[in-house]
Specification:
Length: 340
């Protein structure tokens, strides 16, 4: 009797040791759907039309389910659900696969291939060996953080931030750079066209001003000269010269009166100036003072500028209007010739 009991204990010990030595199977990691067989003998291979399903098992207890869409520019994740799972061993290569308490037969084909049967439909899954640990963690976090959609809300999609997203981002940056370069080029062309048109208009106006002066009949020239001489001897001319020589600052109404007086003596004088170039306030005031025959030093005083600024303003105006370098004196001569 003792021998029989010892034999049974030894047998139980051997069986227990065998079960302990037998390698336990885990579904840990990412598994991709590759094949689905239906009872009607219909079969579908995945990826199907660029889409497949991905299961991520977390310690054989939690399952994260999503769809993967393969596009030309990367991989897009569509989170589906999170399921509680467990495995119950039935045989060396057979497990009872529980999803939220619902059992399904699971057959272990190899370390990297399994099949799961649901209502007669057999799906084949393989370990996603192309998925790095970083990518698996990223997809898991996407599914975990995705809020439950309402019944009427479409499933949200996420572009992976690994290689595909980086390539997509690089493509977007390149596209934005090309668009920016194109816009800059168009702006530069537009500026060049506008400048060219302005130059043509200025050249045309210069020719018109010159022709107008050359084609004046002698009586008209003499009349204009007489009006000019009368202005140079007028009380207004002497008072404005004295006012400026005393270093007094001109107010807005003083500039307006000066402009009015000059346009009476030299018809369309200010229109001629602005038709040649869109002058700044300083450039315009300097030109008015030139026509009034004010010295550069007095210009500097009344405009509260250095005399060097007055000189450079005049030479720059000549270059802007005639498109070639010239001296400040050359601009003075041109302004004095307008309307004379």
């Amino acid at each position: 009797m003792k021998n029989v009991i010892g034999f049974l204990l030894s047998l139980l010990l051997l069986v227990s040791c065998g079960e302990m030595d037998e390698k336990e199977y885990y579904l840990e990691g990412a598994w991709a759907l590759t094949h689905v067989a239906y009872p009607t003998e219909l079969t579908i291979d995945y990826p199907y039309r660029g889409m497949t399903y991905l299961n991520i098992y977390d310690g054989d207890s939690v399952l994260y389910v999503c769809q993967l869409f393969y596009t030309g520019s990367g991989i897009v994740v569509a989170p589906l659900q999170t399921i509680q799972v467990s495995l119950i061993r039935l045989a060396p290569n057979e497990q009872l696969y529980m999803e939220d308490g619902d059992p399904h037969p699971l057959v272990i084909k190899s370390d990297s291939v399994i099949t799961i049967q649901r209502s007669g439909v057999i799906s084949t899954w393989v370990r996603a060996s192309d998925m790095t640990e970083g990518r698996i963690n990223e997809i898991r976090e996407i599914i975990k953080n995705d809020q439950k959609n309402d019944a009427n809300e479409a499933v949200r999609h996420y572009v992976l931030s690994t290689t595909e997203r980086k390539l997509l981002s690089a493509n977007h940056r390149l596209l934005y750079a090309l668009i920016t370069a194109l816009v800059c080029m168009l702006v530069a062309v537009q500026i060049a066209i506008t400048k060219h048109q302005r130059v043509k208009r200025a050249d045309r106006r210069l020719r018109e001003i010159e022709e107008e002066r050359e084609l004046r009949p002698q009586p008209v020239r003499m009349a204009l000269k007489a009006v000019e001489q009368e202005f140079l001897e007028s009380g207004y001319y002497r008072s404005i010269h004295r006012f400026i020589a005393e270093g007094k600052r001109m107010k807005a109404e003083d500039w307006e009166e000066l402009e009015r007086q000059l346009n009476v003596v030299y018809p369309s004088f200010t229109n001629h100036l602005f038709s040649l170039y869109p002058m700044s306030e300083l450039e315009y005031q300097v030109s008015l003072l030139i026509k009034l025959r004010i010295s550069p030093s007095d210009m500097a005083n009344v405009l509260a500028r250095d005399i060097s600024t007055i000189s450079s303003t005049r030479s720059r105006l000549y270059q802007k209007v005639f498109h070639r370098k010239g001296s400040s004196r050359e601009w003075d001569d041109f302004v004095l010739s307008i309307g004379s």
